[in-house]
Amino acid sequence: LVKMQSRGGFLGCVAVALYLLVCFDGMSPMKRWGAVAVPVLLLVALGNGGYFERMQTLLNPSADYNWSGNSETGRMEVWKRGIGYMLDHPFLGVGAQAFGIAEGTLAPEAARLEEYGKGFKWSTAHNAFVEVGAEIGVFGLLLSDPGAGAAWAAARRGAAGACPDRVAGGLRRDGVLPVAGVLRLLLYAPRDDVGARASARRGAGSSPRDAPLVPAPRRQRVMTVRRAVKSLLESGLVHGGLAKLGRLRRREHTLVLTYHNIVPERSPPFGDRSLHLPRPLFVRQLEQLLRTHAVVPLEDVLAPARPSHRPRIAITFDDAYRGATVMGVEELTKRGLPATLFVVPAFVGGGPFWWDAVARPDGEGVDRGLRDHALRALAGKDGQVREWAAAHRLRLAAVPEWALVASEQELHAATRHPGITLASHTWTHPNLVQLPPAELEDELRRPLAWLRQRFERVIPWLSYPYGLASRAVEAAAAAAGYTAALVLEGGWCAPGRVRRYAVPRHGVPRDLSVNGFVLCTSGLCRHDA
Q1: Distances, alpha carbon 394 to alpha carbons 186, 226, 297, 374, in Å
Q2: 253-520 — its CATH code?
Q3: More confidently predicted of 19 and 219
Q4: 363 SS3 class
Q5: d(CA 484, CA 503)
Q6: Hey, which of 89, 443, 451, 491 has its CA 20 to 30 A from 469?
Q7: What is the pLDDT of residues 227-263, one digit of tens each?
């Protein structure tokens, strides 16, 4: 900063310092003052007399050489000439990367000095809009960034509607952090509750089904540069039209979306947090699908797609959590959308599942090593995982009522709504790949018979627990009477190229941003839960 003697950089630093001291509350006042004091001291120590003399021109801009009329090479005079090049050559401009050449040949001062055999300084524009307009013309300037115009329009439409809820730290009630971006476009990143940890657990002996759901205090975290850049890129791709092109390319394909649970907006962090999607985010995703996709029943996935400009989407829920069965189904039926709930009969009316019980207390999920051991050595069996956890003195956490499994009555209530069907998620949710043939057959046959005895709207589809299967498991599913089965990989279903017992699907995790969801449902990325 001192070496370049940039006044714009100096003003930027002043603006950041003022924001930290006055507006930002993501850290303690002492840390904020420290963050401002350290660079100020460095600036005072490293800055020389010439630097501060140059910064003083900010208080008297008309005395600076850049002010209009003070120097032919000042920025305002350069900008005037650049606008002149733009107006003189509105269609093609002076040529790409030729602004400096134009300065040395087309500028009036250059023509005057040429008479005396002297040259004129080839100046840079120091202004992106002037430079682009002068080099490729007025129309080129307008067409150079159509995505920016679309993003601007989208941002203004959003600003004209509802403003983000005014809560502590600038966090909206749907759990995302608005950050001012380019062209006043708001970027959104998921809120990360790294601070709200202590209130997430109750004692192991409590009754979570009857316990009230107590909201955790609001905590916020500073958005990282990586996340901000990611959000900016996502916004540009969505508003620039690339997502629309992706959907057009996928118009004959189908995507199966897999959710797990839907929880209240202010639910505290608990269990395998990535599986528990806040209700407002789920609503936003459904509204997005209504605008851009044709939502179809799961059974239609294998049928040929009808001619349409919209790709097809099928919505599924694994595990039949209470939140998904009650709140998720309620939001679906409000919009007339079909969906399929995959049920684990051995857990109906009970729970929690082992991955929610042994998850870290901060809601950040199950340790990767523990999960691998549970799925391979313990075959993903709930009882064996709990015994192993007890032997290693791991405390099993209680969970809120919405993270338990729906009862038979709640499943009956869900299937009364048109378009809601039930299917099998095996009997006890083990890793089928690790089971011997007799146990594998029992895990596949019992849930289908149990569901058909109790409910009318049952389809003979299977969702493999943990998304794991093998050729032997696929053959066993076919022999058990299933017409199709879902894995958790592969993404889109291409017409005529889908293996019936390895139908791909796409997991929807909690931390997927709204724009990220748009991109994934347009075929431009993968982001599985």
Answers
A1: 43, 34, 41, 14
A2: 3.20.20.370
A3: 19
A4: coil
A5: 7
A6: 451
A7: 666 777 778 778 777 888 888 888 889 999 999 999 9
